[in-house]
Each structure stands twice: as structure tokens, then as C-alpha cells.
Amino acid sequence: MRRSISFVLILLVSAILFNACKSNSTSPQPPASSGNYFPNGDGTNYKYSVTKTDSTGNTASGTRSTTFLGTTVLAGVTYQNEIDTISFGNFSASSTSLFLKTASGVEFAIDTAGLSETIPDSMKQYIQLDAALKVFQFPFQDGQSWPVFNMSLKFGAISFNLVSVTAYYQGMEPVTLNLTSGTVTDNAAKVKYVLTLTVPDLTNPLATPKTYTYTAFAWLVNNIGVVQMQGNGTIMDAFTGGGIHFSDTTATVMQSLVSYNIK
């Protein structure tokens, strides 16, 4: 299963189109951090402790296990498989995502075919979306930012982004990890993700759309990979096999590495 996008976005686009029918670049900087921040050898695996707090303040604790195992060919491109298993008490769910690592970064495939099947043929021409989540861009550089994902609507004079995610490299900082083998402190590359959701006023299509932003962070250690993630559940789910959805935008998630095996 590739990463999916919630059906709520399709309803949003449909409403926009219905109402519409009625009416400086920066110079490159030297790398601030180089190294292997995403080891991807086949069989590499991680286990994280997970704490999730929903909009009512209820907190649940569990684990996430991630394994890179095998490959899948999609549209002529060979992707690696990332198998994620989330467990909370008696509940457990697994998903498989497809990712591609190159010298310039890491990206995850998005299920654009599945999304396309849910959109009426008459609407498909108005929607443009990226085919991948560009989660990391290498090498990390001071002041660096990059587009992770964008979904836009273009219909006549109406043109704006429905959903966009942008990443910002925040520099290096020490991170303490409570591993099963003992507590260690490492320097980690910190990345900030900002998801922006644009929602128009369906009663007045000419009014300025409302904008909502959600934030999350990831920390990566050289020769280990992602050691922590923390922030808004909408972004966290997108990066851990759950897809992009907005059912509870106030949920927060914390994931911290407890064990790993690099192949």
C-alpha cells in the first residue's frame, strides 16, 4: 500500500468547483552536515516508543516497528519497501510504503492512482498533485528548505494550493535517546515540517480562504537514521504509513527510538 490522501480532500475540491461554476531564489550555501542520515540497507529495522494525545487530552502509549525489506517496481522505478507496524495495547496495524533514496534525498511514493479513482473524470483536469513526499533533501545545509508535497486546484481564474508541506533544516542539536542498550546522547540534524491547509468560504467563493498550519519535527543521527519525531498527528501519520488526513488536527504524536539494527 502506498501513502494515501484522505477522501475529505476530494469533498473539499468538489465543493470548490461547484461554487466556482456559480460564480526570490537564494544562493547555495556549503553543507552544514554531511553523512548517512538515512541508512537503507535491506533488513535495517527500528523500534520506537510512541505516545499519542488526542483532542480530548487522552494519551495512549504504544510502539512502532519499521523494517526496510525488499523492493517494488512502480512505473518503471524500483522502490524499497518500508513495513510499519503500529501497536497500542491489543490494537495492531501494519502498512507498507514505497521509498526511494538517492544522493539528493529520500522520497515516498503517493497513491495517486487510488486518489484518481475517487475523482469524477470531469474534475481530474483541475487537480494537480505531486507524486511523492520528498521527506529529506541531502546534504543538509544551513538555511535550507524544500517542498515536500503540494496539491493544488486550478479552475479558470481560481488557482491556489489546497495542501502543501514544506521542510526546513534547523541545524544540529544534541538528542538523548533511552535505548534498550542504555541512554546515549548524539548530535542530530533537526528538520521542521509545516503543513498548510487552505479552506475556502463555500458560501462566498470570492472571499479570502482560511489557512491552517500544522507543525512537526524530525531528528536524524548520522549512520543511524530517524531517531525522534514529534508534532502534529496529521503530518506524523503521513510520514509513518497513515496517509494525509484531517480527522483530528489537534492530535500530537511523539516517537522516540528504543532499538535499531543497521544492515
* CATH class placement: Mainly Beta
Number of separate helices: 4
Q: Reading side by side through the largest sheet, how are the strands ordered?
A: 7-10-11-12-13-14-15-2-3-4-5-6-8
Q: What Rg, in angstroms, do the CA atoms define?
A: 19 Å
Please state the overall shape, judged from the principal axes of the Cα atoms: globular
Helix content: 10-25%
Strand content: over 45%
CATH architecture: Beta Barrel
Can you write the helix and strand succession as a string? HEEEEEEHHEEEEEEEEHE
The tally of domains stands at: 1
Q: What is the arithmetic mean of pLDDT? A: 82
The low-confidence runs, each spanning 5 or more residues with pLDDT under 50, are 5-32
Multimeric organization: single chain
Q: What's the CATH topology name? A: YmcC-like fold
Query: How is the main sheet built?
Result: 13 strands, antiparallel
How many beta-strand segments? 15
- Derived structural class: mainly beta
Distance between the termini: 24 Å
